[in-house]
Design brief:
15 helices, elongated, magnesium ion binding, Rossmann fold, alpha/beta, Inositol_tetrakis-P_1-kinase, inositol-1,3,4-trisphosphate 6-kinase activity
Length: 470
């Protein structure tokens, strides 16, 4: 796709936009948090980004700007450096947005760089330059939204905008692989980071698709009540507002609707869903299934041994909370001896990828870790804190990719999810393929970005196309 003229391809932050007007100090805590968040987004946005300063700025502040620019892999140059300006002109495709405080209007840079658009910062109220080529914004946090608006206007119907929301660490995992460009991709996709620090409605007016990791915004889940699972979840205030919009979207596509997410959050529900995998099993082929499981309400239950036996469970077993993202009633799950090999599968639309990882040791090794005289529980909050097998123990059992791919498609149909992942282990002896975990919107970081990111984008675009045709 040919990118239209008028699309912002680069951003220059003037020193007046970097230092706060109140104390002219980049180290102001609030200003620092906002600036760092913005610079992280710009770094991986596919926009050329630089920081400029004039020669009147003090040496300590220039040094601070340069170190900040280096940290985020950006250019930092003096406005008097014509060579640096020429380099900027060569690097940037499209319009350059120059962000400067309204209190600093002596802009001669516009005469040196063609295709420059000015954005005045710290302008409250209406746009006082409505009839000019100047944009006015109030806060630095508004910059991604401003860029999105300009680019949508320039691209017209040739661009699809995805507004995404997730915790910063997860966002960075995606963004540093190039998954969230603010500059339109060849397929016409553009990603806007949504923020609850700004009014949500104006942001949502600019997006065609909402991509979310709602579990990052869960405060608590009440497992004691009898209400529907959805009504027992308490989200942050911002997510509650977004949820109201997603519950009644006029034209917006959501990846994925919350009612499709809830079953994955309830381990008991997902295990019950996995029971349906038996429909895929046939004589002469490997069995694919979920682990044997039992919901335990009270570990002091005198009949617990019989219940475990009836559920085909024995020690060692894995005890997990029923809710996949918080502490709740216990959920007892089979521990499968699997030659210390974990197969991670990722479903991105109609494409399935997998990776092999070293996993926990077989049961007899775990039993040794508990001690010879007494069986004690191994307490952990994630698989990362459990022991892993030595390299000598790592076994490369061949997995039936056709069978697991068939299961992936079955899960996609039954769960209604666009992007999700699941883990498979192969049981020693029986060679049963056991799906031990299912999660939505994983980072799929084990898959090379050269194939994963295009598949990620393709899944998003096809989801929108599917909605528009139904």
């Amino acid at each position: 796709m040919e990118v239209e003229s008028g699309v912002i391809g680069g951003v220059i932050l003037d020193d007046s936009a970097v230092f706060s007007d109140e104390d002219n100090n980049i180290n102001n805590n609030n200003n620092n948090l906002i600036l760092n968040s913005l610079l992280r987004k710009l770094r991986y946005s596919a926009l050329s980004t630089a920081i400029s300063y004039d020669d009147a700025l003090s040496s300590p502040k220039v040094d601070l700007l340069k170190s900040t620019a280096t940290l985020y892999s950006m250019h930092c140059f003096s406005l008097d450096n014509e060579e640096a300006i020429e380099q900027i002109k060569r690097d940037v495709k499209g319009v350059i947005l120059y962000v400067v405080s309204i209190h600093k209007k002596d802009l001669f840079l516009k005469q040196l760089i063609p295709n420059l658009q000015i954005a005045f910062l710290n302008v409250e109220g209406a746009n006082v330059y409505e009839n000019s080529n100047i944009i006015c914004i109030n806060k630095l946090e508004e910059l991604p939204l401003t860029i999105c608006r300009v680019n949508r206007k320039a691209m017209g119907n040739d661009v699809v905008t995805i507004g995404y929301i997730m915790k910063p660490s997860r966002e960075e995992d995606f963004a540093k692989r190039g998954a969230f460009p603010l500059y339109p991709t060849r397929d016409g996709l553009m990603f806007l980071p949504l923020t609850f620090e700004l009014p949500l409605a104006p942001q949502l007016q600019e997006v065609d698709i909402i991509l979310h990791k709602a579990t990052d915004e869960i405060i608590s889940i009440d497992m004691t009540g009898t209400a529907e699972f959805a009504n027992r979840i308490t989200f942050t205030r911002g997510m509650q507002e977004l949820k109201r919009y997603m519950d009644h979207p006029p034209d917006c596509c959501v990846i994925d609707q919350l009612d499709k997410i809830y079953p994955v959050l309830d381990r008991l529900k997902i295990q019950q869903t996995l029971l349906g995998l038996q429909d895929l099993n046939a004589p002469g082929r490997q069995i694919i299934r979920g682990p044997h499981f039992l919901k335990v309400n009270d570990f002091r239950d005198p009949s617990l041994d019989q219940k475990l036996s009836g559920a085909k469970l024995s020690l060692p077993s894995i005890v997990k909370p029923q809710v996949a993202c918080g502490v709740a009633h216990a959920h007892n799950m089979e521990y499968v001896d699997h030659s210390s090999t974990l197969y991670k599968f990722y479903v991105l639309g109609d494409k399935v990828f997998n990776a092999v990882k070293k996993s926990t040791p077989n049961a007899h090794i775990l039993m040794k870790l508990c001690g010879d005289d007494e069986l004690k529980p191994l307490v952990f909050d994630s698989l990362k804190s459990l022991p892993t097998a030595d390299e000598k123990q790592l076994c490369g059992d061949n997995i039936d990719h056709g069978l697991v791919t068939e299961a992936a498609k079955w899960l996609a149909r039954n769960l209604g999810l666009t992007i999700f992942g699941f883990d498979v282990v192969i049981q020693e002896g029986s060679r049963d393929h056991v799906i031990v975990d299912v999660n939505y919107l994983p980072s799929f970081k084990e898959v090379p970005e050269g194939v994963a990111i295009p598949a990620f984008w393709d899944a998003i675009k096809k989801k929108l196309e599917s909605k528009r045709t139904t």
